[in-house]
């Protein structure tokens, strides 16, 4: 829309509403902003319900002043991230390993529908389907020259779901990495830099707003974490979530977590992913909390339960090898993880919208405990 097509009264109203808000942010401390933003958002919500939108420009600007930056919610609200949509698409017969990027390009509505289901279950943070955006990953399917198009489709579909917060996921680039070789580290960092630049360019082209954070997921080693975080920092000032996969014993690559937490502490949010029982994950969260003051993200890896496992789980019988056979078990896990110190929760693996909904209901309206 051209600016000269908007009535002067519209700009006057926007200026009157926005300038006090900008001045308030400038003179208030972060703590004062956090204490004030919730009642402000509630009031804004009531006003929006009684007032018709005045223009697309005001609708675009309104988000900036009615939704708190995700950093303002650190150590405050319990927040749930949407699950990956890959499993939902695989249930529809799509081979995500070979055709995931092609589906994103050719059938973006299918991906958007799966993401909308996650949004409807109560996830406050939608994770865009950009996990494989690194060029080295895309090269496996000869898609390295389509990264910009994939990012555009992923971000456009995510914004269409009107999330409170949009997080762009970047998986490990997969390149062999020699920590002692500067050339190897430089190549790895270049992969992550290019990925973030692609997301920045796609956001600018869409002009729907900038993403709220970057999620570096599945980092493979201390060196990989260092390269990824350093590279992302050079390309964006948005918060960085960094997460690693733990084994069934809550260990990283068979070792304790001190070294990897030290590397992840360079990010704004420190994360872990684990498929163990809730008690084991909670113990890992407590170890992470003792080593860092950053907010903690916990991703629970689940696998689909068979009909027999579901039946046994409803009878209260523990299922060996599948502790999360029903959404009820995830709700119990969410409470245990909150008590251990987690703020951000997510289900990954063979997760369904019901799994995300269980987490969202369990911690709805709750504050984190650290």
UniProtKB/TrEMBL annotation:
GO terms for molecular function: methyltransferase activity. It comes from the Bacteria. GO terms for biological process: methylation. This is Uncharacterized protein. It comes from Slackia piriformis YIT 12062.
């Amino acid at each position: 829309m051209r600016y000269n097509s908007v009535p002067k009264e519209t700009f006057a109203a926007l200026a009157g509403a926005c300038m006090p808000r900008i001045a308030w942010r400038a003179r208030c401390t972060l703590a004062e902003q956090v204490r004030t933003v919730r009642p402000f958002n509630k009031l804004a919500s009531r006003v929006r319900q009684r007032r018709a939108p005045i223009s697309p420009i005001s609708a675009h600007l309104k988000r900036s002043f009615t939704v708190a930056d995700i950093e303002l919610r650190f150590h405050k609200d319990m927040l749930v991230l949407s699950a990956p949509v890959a499993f939902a698409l695989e249930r529809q017969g799509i081979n995500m390993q070979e055709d995931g990027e092609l589906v994103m390009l050719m059938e973006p509505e299918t991906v958007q529908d799966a993401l909308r289901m996650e949004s409807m279950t109560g996830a406050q943070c939608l994770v865009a389907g950009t996990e494989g955006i690194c060029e080295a990953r895309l090269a496996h399917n000869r898609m390295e020259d389509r990264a910009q198009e994939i990012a555009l489709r992923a971000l456009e579909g995510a914004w269409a779901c009107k999330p409170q917060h949009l997080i762009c996921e970047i998986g490990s680039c997969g390149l062999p990495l020699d920590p002692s070789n500067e050339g190897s580290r430089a190549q790895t960092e270049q992969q992550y830099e290019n990925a973030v630049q692609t997301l920045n360019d796609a956001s600018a082209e869409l002009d729907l707003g900038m993403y709220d954070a970057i999620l570096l997921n599945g980092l493979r080693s201390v060196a990989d974490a260092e390269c990824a975080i350093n590279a992302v920092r050079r390309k964006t000032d948005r918060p960085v979530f960094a997460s690693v996969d733990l084994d069934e014993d809550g260990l990283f690559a068979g070792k304790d977590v001190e070294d990897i937490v030290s590397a992840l502490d360079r990010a704004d949010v420190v994360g872990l992913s684990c498929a163990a029982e809730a008690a084991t994950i909670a113990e890992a969260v407590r170890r992470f909390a003792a080593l860092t003051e950053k907010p903690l993200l916990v991703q629970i890896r689940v696998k689909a339960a068979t009909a027999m496992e579901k039946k046994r789980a409803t009878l209260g019988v523990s299922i060996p090898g599948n502790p999360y056979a029903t959404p009820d078990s995830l709700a119990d896990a969410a409470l245990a993880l909150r008590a251990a110190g987690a703020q951000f929760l997510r289900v990954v693996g063979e997760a369904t919208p019901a799994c995300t909904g269980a987490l969202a209901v369990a911690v709805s309206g709750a504050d984190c405990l650290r």
